[in-house]
């Protein structure tokens, strides 16, 4: 398999895409690229009741902070940030890095701690989606 030229990392904010969601969802053991499971309203409601706090939607100011921290981390790590788009309930980052996908995801997870260190809540879910980019467009 060719070495990827970049990784597309995507993650959602806490509580905004639960197991059972009508858009489809993945379990921890599922392939990263496949929304394998169908809508399950009972499971979705059970997961909603398990939330420790309300779902997190990023305000415009919070979105700016997340983008700034992503840029700072990429600069510090000497990774090429090819694209970043922070939405109210999810984030997309395309990064060229010599690191593995797992390292990139772990770094992104740590990034949210830096962005909102004083907050009492998490802005992301436990799982990331990612894709290897192996060719130029």
Can you walk through the features of this model?
By secondary structure, this protein is α+β, with helices and mostly antiparallel strands. The protein folds into 2 domains: 99 residues, Alpha-Beta Plaits (2-Layer Sandwich), CATH 3.30.70; 37 residues, no CATH class. It contains 3 helices and 4 strands. The protein has a 4-stranded antiparallel beta sheet, covered by helices on one side. A hairpin with a 3-residue loop joins strand 2 and strand 3. Helix 2 crosses helix 3. The longest helix is centred in the middle third of the chain and has 18 residues. The protein is globular and about 45 Å long. It starts with 5 loop residues before the first strand and ends with a strand. About 9% of the residues have low confidence.
Concise summary:
With 137 residues, the protein is an alpha+beta fold.
Q: Which terms would index this structure?
A:
4 strands; 31% helix; 2 domains; 137 residues; alpha+beta; Alpha-Beta Plaits
Coarse morphology:
globular
| Biggest sheet descriptor | 4 strands, antiparallel
Mean pLDDT across all amino acids: 79
Q: Provide the domain count.
A: 2
CATH superfamily placement of the largest domain: Transposase IS200-like
- Low-confidence runs: 117-128
Classify the fold: give the CATH topology of the largest domain.
Answer: Alpha-Beta Plaits
Q: Can you give the helix content as a percent range? A: 25-40%
- In whole angstroms, the N-to-C terminal distance is 18 Å
**Order of strands in the sheet with most strands:** 2-3-1-4
Global Rg: 15 Å
Which class best fits the helix and strand makeup?
alpha+beta
CATH C-level of the largest domain? Alpha Beta
Strand content: 15-25%
**Strand element count:** 4
- The secondary-structure element order is EHHEEHE
Please identify, by name, the CATH architecture of the largest domain: 2-Layer Sandwich
The helix count comes to 3
């Amino acid at each position: 398999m060719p070495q990827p030229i970049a990784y597309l990392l995507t993650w959602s904010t806490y509580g905004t895409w639960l197991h059972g969601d009508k858009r489809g969802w993945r379990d921890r053991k599922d392939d990263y690229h496949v929304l394998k499971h169908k809508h399950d309203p009972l499971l979705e409601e059970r997961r909603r009741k398990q939330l420790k706090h309300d779902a997190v939607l990023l305000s415009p100011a919070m979105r700016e902070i997340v983008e700034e921290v992503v840029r700072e981390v990429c600069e510090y790590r000497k990774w090429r940030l090819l694209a970043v788009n922070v939405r109210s309930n999810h984030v997309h980052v395309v990064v060229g890095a010599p690191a593995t996908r797992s390292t990139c995801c772990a770094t992104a997870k740590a990034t949210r701690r830096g962005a909102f260190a004083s907050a009492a809540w998490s802005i992301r879910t436990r799982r990331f989606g990612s894709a290897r980019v192996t060719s130029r467009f």
